[in-house]
Amino acid sequence: xxxxxxxxxxxxxxxxxxxxxxxxxxxxxxxxxxxxxxxxxxxxxxxxxxxxxxxxxxxxxxxxxxxxxxxxxxxxxxxxxxxxxxxxxxxxxxxxxxxxxxxxxxxxxxxxxxxxxxxxxxxxxxxxxxxxxxxxxxxxxxxxxxxxxxxxxxxxxxxxxxxxxxxxxxxxxxxxxxxxxxxxxxxxxxxxxxxxxxxxxxxxxxxxxxxxxxxxxxxxxxxxxxxxxxxxxxxxxxxxxxxxxxxxxxxxxxxxxxxxxxxxxxxxxxxxxxxxxxxxxxxxxxxxxxxxxxxxxxxxxxxxxxxxxxxxxxxxxxxxxxxxxxxxxxxxxxxxxxxxxxxxxxxxxxxxxxxxxxxxxxxxxxxxxxxxxxxxxxxxxxxx
Length: 384
What we know:
single chain; 13 strands; 33% helix; 3 domains; alpha+beta
């Protein structure tokens, strides 16, 4: 009721909500409220805190290498949204960071002769070896790159011993004395003085687009999104690998310690920032609804798996590619749009088939994920 009343004030007319029984009309009022009150984003405390954390992280040296540095990247809602909706953005401070002395390359690729300025004058190069699970790899030490003083290019030397990288990466120690927990690849720290959790994800940088996602840039797109310039920018950014094993492998003594996951956070930031305002608003509404309705909690309390924001993000990426522009702009009822998308995700989860947006044959709702209860719950949601 509050939202509808505020919508009436924002758009120049008064609305008597008590006389409205039509869910569709109410949905249109809510939609108008979001569209009329949504502004371009300005620097917020959230964004400033994230930038300050990155500055601090960049000044820290790894405990085992005083010459190395960390290179941070702001991810999550701060990086993805260019809008500032009336309702608060969901999420804390999300940062990825990689060492400037390490680099990942796909197996069989020639080590690079030139590197961006962020890298050190010596760099260990790890080969990404695909596992049996799409999107998950192992990292094997292969080369040492050293910068030549005469031309600035790097020279590669093979390592005699080639161990596999363990995924138990020690997090940056930026807030001494505060409790930190491991959640997947992230180290989560609650910082009382700023009121946020900081989710810091250690990763290893890969400067090339991974072969597992080779079909993504060239697949047929009927509605022109993403456009060619956006595709080129995404591919040129490469990817990262983050230190977490697939849930099927975490109990295995070796795979649980050595498996890494491909991360497309850089690609997602570029793609989400290319969305229309309507698409960003719908994404925000979905995230806020799923969070406040506690849909991320396991439906049967089995703990076998939970619905995550990544499912919502994947849903939106596919919808933006598979739906025409008019589907987003001609429908003034964003509540109806959200409901339809939640039903689509519900069907995917109920059928245990939720395809990854980038990686072929990667299923985000395979048999190791208890998805059916979530699917049924999502399909029961209506506009009201």
